[in-house]
Amino acid sequence: MIKLGLIGFPLGHSFSKNYYLSKFEDEEINDVNYDLYSLENINQFPSLFLNDNRFRGFNVTIPHKQTVMGFIDDLSIEAKEIGAVNCITVHRSEDKVSLKGYNTDAFGFETSLTPLLTPQHNRALVLGNGGAAKAILYTFEKLGIPYTIVSRSKTNGHLTYEQLNEDLISSHPIIVNCTPLGTFPNIEECPQIPYEYISNRHLLYDLIYNPVETLFLQKGRSQNAITKNGHEMLILQAEKNWQIWKDNF
């Protein structure tokens, strides 16, 4: 039995486990299993794949997407440039175990975003500057879309939420929520931006997929903006992970 899994902490409800186990059942893949491995300390990670040669791959979620890179022997171009890993392959030879790290978040975001883009979507506001934002910034750089980061503190030239005004909102027709604000069960929360300046020229994208429509997206829709949640991005990156793992089986 080939073993795959998700590492992170804490791990509650997991989209990944449900998704892959359903996929395996639907496609009659009987020799692969996927499970959750809650690791409070990333230094616990090697004990998983070193003590069990059935492991062939992992997903990585918060808070380990960056710290896990200390255990990676090789990085894909995207993972290296983004500085974060969410997919790992385990390679085994007679006397060595090596890991390669990938970032499929960027693939998922770009593939789900680009069909929505029109020529007017020429500048972006990125809400939040944590690990979730890294793949988003990489994608905008790849697409040649200038972006401005909005964070709670005025560091590294970022804007603060208090600085957002009509001109800034109007001149940034793409707004991406990379914060956890609005995630279930805290569905009454949303980033504090002046939603009254959102228009039908805007595209609001939320990385959150639970709930299906966050308050951020509700407020955008009420202003006639195009809105999209993170569910398709999640599915796209999950399928990309599977292709990467399969090539290593």
TrEMBL record:
It comes from the Bacteria. Pfam families: Shikimate_dh_N (PF08501). Pathway: Metabolic intermediate biosynthesis; chorismate biosynthesis; chorismate from D-erythrose 4-phosphate and phosphoenolpyruvate: step 4/7. Keywords: Amino-acid biosynthesis, Aromatic amino acid biosynthesis, Oxidoreductase. The keyword Cell division does not apply. Residues 6-88 form the Shikimate dehydrogenase substrate binding N-terminal domain. This is Shikimate dehydrogenase family protein. It comes from Sphingobacterium tabacisoli.
